[in-house]
Amino acid sequence: MIRRNWLRTQRVLLWICLVVLCTLFSGCSLELVDISTQESKDSSSSSITSQNRLRVIFLDVGQGASQLLISPSGSTMLIDAGNNDREQQMVDYLRQYGVDHLDVILGTHPDADHIGGLDVVIDHYEVGAIYMPKIQANTKTFESLLESIRDKGLKVKTAQAGLQLEWDDQVQVEMIAPVEYSEDSNNMSAVLKVTYGETSFLLTGDAERESEKAMLASGKDLSADVLLVGHHGSKSSTSLTFLQQVAPKFAVIQVGENSYGHPKQEILNRLSKNGTQVYRNDLQGTIEFASDGQHYEITTER
Ligand SMILES: [Zn+2]
């Protein structure tokens, strides 16, 4: 009798272990990608070590955008911070990633789904520099951001094409847009190209066709392995010529529940035809690309 009970207990314990393990492993998925550069022939480097990595984290902020970058030497950058209703979540995210200060903040453009959470972030954290394009918005959200910037004694630096950001010695951060002034807020979006070794990211805010055209005409090298799809996958962005120039292997769409029909099927088809693998915050939660300069380790929340 005692033995039978003991066996049953063992079986129950085994089941509990299995369930716990399954839950742990299905909770997040991880993918290792070799971008097959000439230098990556040394297969001993197939796994990315925890140090010397550039982490680009596409935070799940619902219908909005926010990217947290952590450099190989630990410098931090926050690009946008989702909507006003995500303020607490933003602060929680930063705490979760162990961020205690932000070397750079970039508000890509004044729309609420991008700058909404920035005021609270600025209130809570030490900030090195803040960049925003030269365009105003007549909204409470924008006013509130300006107030936080003033209270902190920060001075906004103008986001414009041609700027090289001094952020980490090993990572090149160049502003590709806005190339020229536009009355349209989306087309004033600051666009960053981030390059680390052989790996690269193009982070586009809500830049639309007008800005894409200007970027193409500027003659800058737009090619990148990872593209943040412009304007949440709207039809007004990711024109074919632009996509062909960037030629990304991976694309991230920062999108949540919305009434705009984002992302548009037409854009998903275009990305698929281009051979680009798509990641989406609404389907996969927070998405992280960690680069050692040659490989990407891609982690999704679900
Ligand atoms: Zn937006």
TrEMBL record:
Entry keyword annotation includes Plastid: no
Source organism superkingdom: Bacteria
PROSITE patterns given in the database record: PROKAR_LIPOPROTEIN
Statement: the UniProt record of this protein carries the keyword Lyase: no
Catalytic reactions on record: 3',5'-cyclic CMP + H2O = CMP + H(+); 3',5'-cyclic UMP + H2O = UMP + H(+)
InterPro entries associated with the record: ComA-like_MBL, Competence_DNA_uptake, Metallo-B-lactamas, RibonucZ/Hydroxyglut_hydro
Designated name of the protein: Beta-lactamase superfamily II metal-dependent hydrolase
Native source species: Fontibacillus phaseoli
